[in-house]
Amino acid sequence: MSERAIEARPSAAAGATAWRHHHLLDVDTLSRDEIELVLDTAAEMRGILERSVPRAPALRGVAVVTLFYEASTRTRVSFELAAKTLGADVVNVSATGSSIEKGESLVDTVRTIERLGARVIVMRHASAGAPYLAARNTAASLVNGGDGWHAHPTQALLDAFTIRRHLGRVDGLRIAIVGDILHSRVARSNAWLLTTLGAQVVLCGPPPMLPPGMGGVAEDDLLPPVQVTTDLDAALRGADAVMALRIQLERMGTSEAPVSRAYARDYGLTVARLQELAPRALVLHPGPMNEGVEISPDVAHGAASLVEEQVQNGVAVRMAVLYLVTGKGA
Ligand code: CP
Q1: Which of 26, 98, 108, 247 has minimal CB crowding within 10 Å?
Q2: Burial call 180-203: b when 16+ CB within 10 Å, e when fewer
Q3: Looking at ligand 1, which atom is closest to the CA of residue 286?
Q4: 72 lines ligand 1 (CB under 6 A)
Q5: Helices 74-85 and 32-49 meet at what angle, rounded to 10?
């Protein structure tokens, strides 16, 4: 596949693997070849973004609507820029200021947006499973931009893309995900995606923030059988990459919320703790960060940190996803 193929003959852009998904709801339904197709397509999209005029009108005439019931900066803006870079028409809808405030249901909202002409709906919702309900009720392609604690497929894809760019592969790597695993859609989608690509994933956090299976293998229907531990030093030892996660206070009761200072002391990523990692190990965070809690400022902005590049790669990966779900890679 080449950038030229994306512009001039979209049907030539997919390479050997066929894309067979109308929606992208999570990564647990993607094969290894399909994940690699997204990452390879994203690499071509990154090439387009690096041009002096970053435009390739593969989605000209396609209407993309972002429908966000929950706050977002990175995901919403990067989907909008991704769609515009590919020549699509983009409309943004949020719960505030739309008829959702008047009580319009999710299904009616999605059907209305489809009737208005949307070919792709990118949706974020606080309830796990909401994009699945939406997908059953629309002919548009539904792309999940994050549903509650369940899944965030494009975040996991951009994380894998970023790791692969720096280490050349994901297969065989040891990757630690540290923090509030229990409430994290990012942890769940990354656990599926990274293990499908052949990485060894270990999930680490304090007991109230871990899924069942602590001290062994995850016993959670929404996770693959990855290692789960409360021992941060053991999780970090020899890891090729570590991903810190924000405490998802919005998904906890006030009685469950940890004290930030104690959390930072026991589970915050610090320069001293990074000594446990493998040489040239990478530091990632999906954002937004709470510096001084789950990650110290000198780690967040240090030489090993790829946090800003993750944000940047989000545009290329979302271009690839929009391109594929609209059938341009077929
Ligand atoms: N990582 C992520 O989903 O960030 P936003 O909430 O800003 O979209």
Answers
A1: 108
A2: bbbbbbbbbbbbbbbbbbebebbb
A3: 1
A4: yes
A5: 70
Task: Indicate if ligand 1 lies below 6 Å from the C-beta of 73.
Answer: yes
pLDDT of residue 14: 47
The closest-lying atom of ligand 1 relative to the alpha carbon of residue 77 is: 8
The amino acid at residue 36 is E
Instruction: Give the pLDDT of residue 2.
Output: 65
Task: Characterize the bridge pairing of strands 174-178 and 241-244.
Answer: parallel
CB of 170 closer than 8 Å to CB of 241: no
Radius of gyration of the chain (CA): 19
Quick one: average pLDDT of 71-88? 98
Cβ count near 323 (within 10 Å): 29
Quick check: 170 and 197 in contact, CB under 8 A? yes
Peptide bond into 131 cis (omega under 30): no
Q: Could you tell me if the CB of 287 is within 6 A of ligand 1?
A: yes
Alpha carbon distance 240, 277 (integer Å): 7
Rounded Cα–Cα distance for residues 38 and 191 (Å) = 17
Instruction: Considering only residues 328 and 112, tell me which one the structure prediction assigns the higher pLDDT.
Output: 112
- Token pair belonging to 175: 């990757």
